[in-house]
Design a protein that fits this description.
66% of the residues lie in helices and 2% in strands. With 208 residues, it is mainly alpha-helical. Strand 1 and strand 2 (174-175) form a beta hairpin. The radius of gyration is 18 Å and the shape is globular. It holds the Pfam family dUTPase_2.
Length: 208
Amino acid sequence: MTHTTQQKQLVTMLELQNAMNKKVHEDWLNQGFEWYRAIWIECGEMLDHYGWKWWKHQSPDMEQVKLELVDIFHFGLSCRLSDSDDLNKIAETLEYEFSDRRTNDDFRTTLEDLALNTLQTKSFNAQIFAGCMQQIDMSFDELFTSYVGKNVLNFFRQDHGYKDGTYHKVWHGKEDNEHLVEVVATLDPKAEDFADKVYQELSKRYPS
């Protein structure tokens, strides 16, 4: 059975999410973690970055809004992994839902729809999530690149002493996030070993 590039990218993200969750708790699937709660809380935080107060001037911090959306996707993938262990099936379903975007009048109301649906169903609605992406001009490739980069950096930090305080966040005068952005820009996000390559390139830069 042939899989589309998007399905392969979704499987990669599902594998990375499962691995990260296992790093937090080996038996995470049986802990009953409320991933849905993390989603609606993040929706509120994102609205603060986007701006909603009519009594003061606010300019949307779009970079931060997109980062919050990536965080929500971490929790959304965890929701789906909690319901099924068939990664290919989850990926197929998500790809279909991403193609059937649901939007409201503007980004704020679509985001509220996502929060409301999450509270009502205690699950992740990828159609409304994709609608949020559309209204802030965020492509699937951008979501994938940002997601994998953030996930791999989290792993890299853990592997290099983040927990015991020996990890250095600044290397050669730049924060690790800046190195990540530079590394990702040199790689092909559609390559099947994209995540491994990101890790390898970070390793080359990290002072030994």
